[in-house]
Amino acid sequence: MVKKQTAGRDNLGEFAPKFAALNDDVLFGEVWAREKQMSARDRSLITCSALMAQGLFPQLEAHMKMAKENGVTKGEMVELITQLAFYTGWPKAWSAFGIAKEIFTD
């Protein structure tokens, strides 16, 4: 079961309440909760891939933490980054590995 997210309201609730509600209630409350259609683990792998491809490293860090909570292993994250290095760019892989090393080193 996907953990209830409150990041939108916690960070933008007063400044951008509609965006915060869409983030928490629709994206994480409805889309991520569709576990019969796709597991949270697989959604995490896809999301991390998309964020790495775009070079959105602050968001990638947050989603790598979620990925670990959703059962993605260190080995799987290493493979994801290695695979994407050839498609998204070597510097992005270096940046992603820096984040992964912090999150997946126990």
From TrEMBL:
Q: Which GO terms describe its molecular function?
A: peroxiredoxin activity
Q: Which InterPro entries match?
A: 4CMD/NDH-1_regulator, AhpD-like, CMD-like
**What Gene3D superfamilies does this protein's entry cite?**
AhpD-like
Q: Where is the Carboxymuconolactone decarboxylase-like domain?
A: 17-102
Q: What is this protein called?
A: Carboxymuconolactone decarboxylase family protein
Which species does the entry assign this protein to?
Secundilactobacillus similis DSM 23365 = JCM 2765
